[in-house]
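Late entry, manganese (II) ion complex.
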Amino acid sequence: MSIKFNYLKKTINKPTGNVVLFSNEKFKTNELKKYLSNFEFSYINDLLKNTDYKKNLYIFELSSKRNIILVSIKKDLKISDIEKLGAEFFGRINIGDSKDYFIISDTINNKNNNFLSHFLHGAKLKSYVFKKYKTKKEKRDITLNITGNKNKPSIQNQIKFKALEEGTFYARDLVSEPGNVLHPDEYAKRLSSLKKDGLKINIYDEKKLKKMGMHALLGVGQGSIRGSYLVTMEWNGAKNKSSPLAFVGKGVCFDTGGYSLKPAKFMEDMTYDMAGSAAVVGLMKSLALRKAKINAIGVVGLVENMVSGNAQRPGDIVKSFSGKTIEVLNTDAEGRLVLADAITFTEKKYKPKFIIDLATLTGAIIVSLGSEYAGLFSNNDDLSKKIFNAGEKVDEKVWRMPLHKNYDKLMNSKNADMQNINYVGGAGSTTAAQFLQRFILNKTPWAHLDIAGMAFSKYGGALNSGGATGFGVRLLNELIEENYE
Ligand code: BES
Ligand code: MN
Ligand code: ZN
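Prediction complete; structure with ligand written out below:
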């Protein structure tokens, strides 16, 4: 299944074949007359007589080669509404054989000059499916020929949205891969191939990590026959040497829970426990593809949380890269151990403007927020507001949750500087965030996004057809575009 955009250089005034026309919210069609035959025009208007105007689009099948699609542009559409409209459009035409359509941009009447870019973006996002391991291939190609004199997406928009789509799809591909394929060795190898997009890639393997003292991260991966890695991706798109924006991702390729073993029902989904890292990777790819005029750095910790004779035990005490010691009371609270080292490393090495980390960190955030909002935890009001606003705009929403020193206290340990879980007090997502905050050593503005409920969608959402969502790529791109570029 694929959808292709074909921006026609020469305008076709009255295309035969399948056409997509836009009207106002009342399906008013007078201006569309010139694109239709007299018969078609009266036929459509006759059928529209009984509409309740609630629908967003109608498909009139006049013959196998002539479908007329009428999309109504309702009043006061937000950008995310336009994208959802495009997604709905795709859902409706994604049946039967391969088809070509002519989208007549002149029929668009909307105050948003980028209407068609967003509409097509929504259609594209919805079209993604992961069918790599289906041996029977379904082949349906949909080509959208965009024609007209007005409202055509600018070249800059074409480049930007394509970059966003490729970054999002790359993240979705990574998340969709099963644990036996995308283990840390394979993941690190794939990341090294991103050099071709202009990213500077640095891979720290186990030997290097040991030397650096990253024992919190290493402890999580020590039961796996695969390696553990920290991978950095640098994008230098600003002319000056301004301090970079930093994004850190949890890349637990599979989370069995370790000796604090997960029950089967909760374990089967844990191939997507690297979704935080995938969002960071997808974002970095998008930034490179659209040549964003900023400096950014992506850091991902890649491990596999397994059981074996060599795996970490509950009660083990490890020394983190920060120098702080951690009592690992529960080997299933592993994401924070990986992030702890990655966060301190990022702050120390890059002295970034801010650090945003993304992680499928706690089941508790799904209890709190379900699959509607990601949890946002931050030491900085300004950064929080900016992330919140970006989320509303692209419909990757976040909701701020509290941090407080009394929650922080719950993480103190008798035997080490801290422990990795708390047994009393509840607030599992907040205490996880408090744990992470201990690894920001120099007051760098920091935000943590717990995306456990957002990374994967069993039944599909407005802008995805089910499976990996790529949550975070468009959110963070919007944050950057709006505030830092
Ligand atoms: N990867 C899980 C969190 C998770 C759960 C993500 C469900 C997506 C869906 C994480 O490593 C984990 O196991 N967290 C524990 C923490 C607990 C042991 C303090 C949890 O949430 O149960
Ligand atoms: Mn876990
Ligand atoms: Zn996990």
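The mean pLDDT is 97. Will revisit in the morning.
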